[in-house]
Amino acid sequence: QVQLVESGGGLVQPGGSLRLSCLASRRPISIYSMAWYRQAPGKQRELVATIFSSGNTKYKDSVKGRFSISRDNAKNTVYLQMNSLKPDDTAVYYCNNGIDTSPWPWGQGTQVTVSS
Q1: Per-residue pLDDT, 22
Q2: First to last CA, the chain
């Protein structure tokens, strides 16, 4: 029932910035923790950032100080502002709830490629 649509990815040079968006439909997200995940080729999907219903946030160590997760409950949308991008950030980025053991159906994700 929940539909997740990610957008905002693209090709960017090292040091550049991107802002990802995740629009959820058919279920209000206000009561949920929400999170961004990413999956690089040949790697497992990993948790990048979490924003709790309180607004508190948590980040993977390697993105601290560079990425910022936010939410707009009225728009049922979660954002990921990514600055100072590095080649190692290259991956498909997905959003979902922050429960991890009980994810909603995964969206298609949005490709982020960091390359010169």
Answers
A1: 98
A2: 40
Q: Is the dihedral of CA 27, 105, 54, 19 positive or negative?
A: negative
Write the burial class of residue 76 (CB in 10 Å: 0-12 exposed, 13-18 middle, 19+ buried). Answer: middle
Q: Can you tell me the mean pLDDT for 88-98?
A: 97
Is the separation of the CB atoms in 46 and 37 below 8 Å? yes
The first and second tokens of residue 11, run together, are 């090709």
Cα–Cα distance, 48 to 37 (Å, whole number): 5
Is-contact 67 51, C-beta < 8 A? no
30 — pLDDT class (breaks 50, 70, 90): very high
Calpha distance 58→69 (Å, rounded): 9
Q: Give just the sign of the alpha carbon dihedral 27, 28, 34, 37.
A: positive
